[in-house]
Design goal:
This protein is of the alpha+beta class and 347 residues long. Helix content is 26%, strand content 17%. Bound molecules: zinc ion (ZN). Belongs to the FPG family.
Length: 347
């Protein structure tokens, strides 16, 4: 299942590929009959909130998005959904999710026959996007969009996010922080990789109840997530390690090789076996202390942690001394997790 940064990239790809254009919409599979109602409408905007994608359509270009006639297609990819982009050269940053099926001479993409499972096809003047296998694909009005936003916790990638909603929800709960981070009603967009990595960076045991954390600790988690997820949204890759922690055991055959990421073929990108502190590194030595990383089930997904760095007993002291976000802040601004050599080459 894609994490929130990927859905934000999809929204950007849809804006870049179809924004302000009248588009053709159809449901080759036939299961999204409402697609016919929007056929010929203008794709006015696309936004992500957590793992939900909301594509705004207006009847014509003179209507501003947000006008009461605006309709929103809500898409949740779930485990199996994907978007496939095809079009003329330079059409949409198609590496968002799903590879472009056609990169041939101009015009070829127009003849691309949709897969029979295509729930929604959006076709513009420069290219098309096919949606297959989503968990949700439905049309909402403005009130429906509002309900989606209100139901979800704040999304660290949205400018309108209120981090205090996250702080309050966590501190009011006796549920483990490792479970709360996966609850989209508490914070939207965090998935299994960000959960494990952010807790390591905070030196927090995933099993600590939310109410045992100080407001400063919870705010620190948020403030650390924002630049990490922005980096992910910009590059399509999750990198949480600081450069000085990456090469400790580069020779070890890591299990993280099973985690495919955009940019894997890019020699300048941070290799995935160096990108994480704990995710899929169970039994391997911690990059900081050498203790074997552990794994266990939490919120129906496997969580990974270092039992020494993330011990309950020492967390308060370590928070003050070692919290990475605090180190980032020393320079006066959040710095990206130092993969500068690879960022620009991803397009
Ligand atoms: Zn450790």
């Amino acid at each position: 299942m894609p994490e929130g940064h990927t859905v934000h990239r999809l929204a950007a790809a849809l804006r870049a590929g179809f924004g302000s254009q009248a588009v053709r919409t159809s449901s080759p599979q036939g299961r999204f009959s409402d697609a016919a109602e929007l056929d010929g409408w203008v794709l006015a905007d696309a936004e992500a909130v957590g793992k939900q994608l909301l594509i705004a359509f207006t009847p014509d270009a003179s209507v501003a998005p947000g006008d009461p006639v605006t309709r929103y297609v809500r898409v949740h990819l779930g485990l199996y959904g994907s978007w496939t982009f095809a079009g003329e050269e330079g059409f949409a940053p198609a590496h968002a999710i799903g590879a472009p099926r056609v990169q041939g001479p101009e015009g070829d993409w127009r003849r691309l026959v949709p897969r029979p499972t295509t729930r929604l096809r959006i076709q513009g003047s420069q290219g098309l996007a096919d949606l297959t296998g989503p968990t949700a694909c439905e049309v909402l009005d403005g009130a429906g969009r509002r309900r989606v936003l209100d139901r979800l916790g704040p999304d660290p990638l949205r400018a309108d996010a209120d981090p205090e909603r996250f702080v309050e929800r966590v501190r009011a709960s006796r549920t483990a922080i490792g479970v709360l981070l996966m609850n989209q009603d508490v914070i939207a967009g965090v998935g299994n990789i960000y959960r494990a990595e952010i807790l390591f960076r905070a030196r927090l045991d995933p099993a600590v109840p939310g109410r045992d954390l100080t407001a400063g600790m919870v705010r620190g988690i948020w403030e650390d997530l924002v630049p990490l997820m922005r980096y992910g949204a910009r590059t399509g890759r999750i990198v949480t390690t600081q450069p000085e922690h990456r090469r400790l055991e580069a020779r070890i055959l890591e299990r993280s090789r099973g985690t495919l990421q955009n940019g894997d073929g890019d020699p300048a990108a941070v290799p995935r076996e160096e990108s994480f502190y704990v995710y899929h590194r169970q039994t391997l030595p911690c990059r900081l202390c050498g203790t074997a990383i552990r794994s266990g089930d939490m919120a129906a997904r496997t969580v990974f942690w270092c039992p020494r760095c993330q011990s309950v007993r020492s967390r308060r002291a370590r928070w003050t001394l070692e919290h990475p976000a605090a180190a980032w802040a020393e320079s006066g601004e959040h710095r990206e997790p130092a993969a500068a050599t690879s960022e620009e080459s991803d397009g």
